[in-house]
Specification:
This protein is α+β, with helices and mostly antiparallel strands. It has 2 helices and 6 strands. A hairpin with a 2-residue loop joins strand 4 and strand 5.
């Protein structure tokens, strides 16, 4: 559980070769980094070009955003801003009553032979 004053930061346009520890090091200049997550494709495992950094203090996060947004990092201009809360995706609802179901709107009967 994060502290009340923490901040989740979105970092976009990341170079493919960047590692979690390198991104953490970049943000540690501004304060305590609680966590770093570089998002990867589920199938290929390749980086998707964005990630998230959790800063311990909102003020430190705001300073990092101000300083790092539109800055160069490993040859690419990165986009840095406060992460928005993730919205539910249409057509992809988890229904605990239907274990293994990807879509709670799927009303088809199982195929019988």
């Amino acid at each position: 559980m994060r502290a009340l004053f923490s901040m989740n930061i979105y970092v976009g346009n990341l170079p493919e070769q960047v590692q979690n520890d390198e991104l953490k090091e970049l943000f540690q200049r501004f304060g305590t980094v609680d966590a770093v997550r570089i998002i990867r494709d589920r199938v290929t495992g390749q980086p998707r070009g964005f990630g998230f950094v959790d800063m311990a203090e909102a003020a430190e996060g705001e300073k990092a955003i101000k300083e790092l947004d539109n800055s160069m990092f490993k040859g690419k201009t990165i986009c840095v801003n406060e992460a928005r809360e993730r919205k539910p995706r249409p057509g992809f609802h988890r229904d605990p009553r239907r274990e293994g179901s990807r879509d709670s709107h799927d009303n088809r009967e199982p195929h019988k032979e």
